[in-house]
Structure to design on (270 residues):
């Protein structure tokens, strides 16, 4: 059975890009303080490196934006994502494009509203639908903003049920968010949360666990279904590790190069 595409950030998923052409948006504001962050995605079984993520955070006409470039272990880019928080932080516009298959999904403006879209690749046409009308809708890396917004309440052990957008289904499903036991990630005390389907069959379906630095609230680790698809077309399970201490300033030239990088990486991702 094909798995459900739950997120992703991301991790970068949760943290959560740009494309050649109109979807790329405008250039970042000069002097806007571009930041760069790296992440590594490992296979949950034998722990081998499947791919890496590079995130650029910047201001697009004063609006928080993010570009994510996904690379094979050999450094060749194969996918790209952009996000723009022009509205509720937990529900950004975004677009993910995978150069290996032509798969594309996201949320964009259309007239006075917004639509969710998906193009499976392989020559199949794009499908669209109006964005679900829910004030608490969570979209892609907006889950990270949601966690930060509700940090104190969730930290007390309270749980939430929120509609989470599933672009491949052109709709949303209700997911339950709850705190797990604290842990240590790369030597740093961390607070963990779980996102799982809020239904009686939820226990049997994949879930996502995220870990944040207990003091700085920086994302440290993501474990679960990523928004990158494997060679069989299903979303891969991954353990994605971030090192916030390695974040550094980046130049507009580096961001522009990431936007223009050809998506010609052909690494097999099991």
């Amino acid at each position: 059975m094909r798995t459900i595409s739950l997120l992703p950030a991301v991790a970068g998923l949760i943290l959560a890009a740009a494309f050649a052409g109109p979807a790329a948006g405008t250039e970042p504001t000069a002097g806007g303080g571009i930041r760069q962050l790296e992440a590594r995605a490992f296979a949950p079984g034998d722990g081998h490196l499947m791919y890496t993520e590079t995130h650029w955070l910047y201001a697009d006409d004063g609006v928080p934006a993010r570009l994510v470039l996904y690379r094979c272990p050999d450094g060749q880019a194969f996918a790209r994502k952009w996000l723009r928080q022009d509205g509720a932080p937990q529900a950004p516009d975004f677009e993910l494009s995978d150069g290996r298959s032509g798969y594309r999904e996201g949320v964009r403006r259309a007239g006075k509203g917004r639509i969710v879209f998906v193009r499976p690749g392989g020559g199949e046409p794009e499908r669209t639908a109006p964005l679900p009308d829910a004030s608490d809708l969570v979209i892609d890396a907006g889950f990270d903003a949601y966690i930060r917004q509700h940090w104190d309440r969730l930290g007390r052990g309270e749980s939430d049920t929120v509609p989470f957008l599933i672009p491949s289904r052109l709709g949303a499903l209700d997911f339950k968010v709850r705190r797990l036991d604290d842990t240590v990630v790369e030597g740093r005390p961390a607070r963990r949360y779980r996102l799982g389907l809020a239904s009686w069959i939820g226990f049997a379906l994949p879930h996502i666990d995220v870990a944040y630095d207990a003091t700085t609230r920086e994302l440290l680790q993501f474990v679960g279904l990523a928004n990158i698809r494997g060679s069989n077309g299903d979303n891969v399970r991954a353990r994605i590790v971030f090192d916030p201490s390695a974040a550094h300033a980046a130049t507009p030239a580096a961001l522009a190069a990431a936007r223009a990088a050809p998506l010609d990486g052909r690494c097999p991702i099991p």
User: Anything to note?
Assistant: The helical segments are 142-149, 151-155, 252-260.
